[in-house]
Structures are given as structure tokens and as C-alpha cells.
Amino acid sequence: MSTKPSQLHFTWSGLAAVIARFSSAPDAVTRSWLEAVEKWAADLQSSFPALVEAAHRLTHDLSTKELRRHPAAQYLFQARNGRLDQTSPARQCSTPRKMIDLAAALGLVVPKLPD
Question: Which pLDDT value is given to residue 98?
């Protein structure tokens, strides 16, 4: 995957601010790429409900011991205890990188950052 680490580590609001700041760039290629990044971020954030669903599904498939060893253990225990709702990933995954890492741990495929 050809990703630009700096974009992945911006907070969601920081990424939106950078996109807004440079969206009036005179270069059409730059503007086009920024539009693609903005769409990518929106698509990525729209995956939050799927993360919650996957976490709830996994809690039924794994033993407590397996949950403890899982890379997404924190989320899985929240799901198991009824504390993981649709807004939880948005609060806990403050950057695209955190969201991508959680999705990978839960076995989900998410959109890739545009080249």
C-alpha cells in the first residue's frame, strides 16, 4: 500500500483543515487529489458502523482468553459488555491510522488513501 504517513496521522479535523486550506490551490492536479482524499476520509468514517458490527460479531466467536489476546481487545470487551455503540469508534479512533488499524484487527477492508 502506497500511503502517505502524515495524512494517516492527522486527526480527522486536522485533515479536514488541511484539505480546506489547500483546496483553492491553482494546480488542478492538487485540487483533484485533495478532493479524492476528502472522499476517502468520508468513506473511511462511514465504516464506523461496520467496525461496531464486526466487534459485536467477534465477541460471540471468541473465548475470553482469545478476546484478551486479540489486537482489538479493548473494543471487543466494550462490545461484550454492551458499551460499544455507533459513536464509540469515532471517539476512540481520532486519526485515520487508528481507524485503519482497528479495521485490520477486526478483519475489515477499508478504502486506501489515494495516491
Answer: 93
2 and 115 in contact (C-beta within 8 Å)?
yes
Residue pair 110/47 in contact (Cβ under 8 Å)? The answer is yes
Residue ranges, the chain, pLDDT below 70: 1-7
Distance, CA of 77 to chain centre: 19
For residue 71, what is the DSSP state? T
Number of neighbouring beta carbons within 10 Å of residue 14: 13
d(CA 85, CA 33): 33
What value, to the nearest 5°, has the Cα angle with vertex 94 and ends 88 and 100? Answer: 90
84 backbone dihedrals φ, ψ, rounded to 5°: -105, 105
Nine-digit cell string for 103: 479495521
Which H or E run contains 109? none
Per-residue b/e over 83-109, b at no fewer than 16 CB within 10 Å?
ebeeebbeebbebbeebbebbebbeee
DSSP code for 70? S
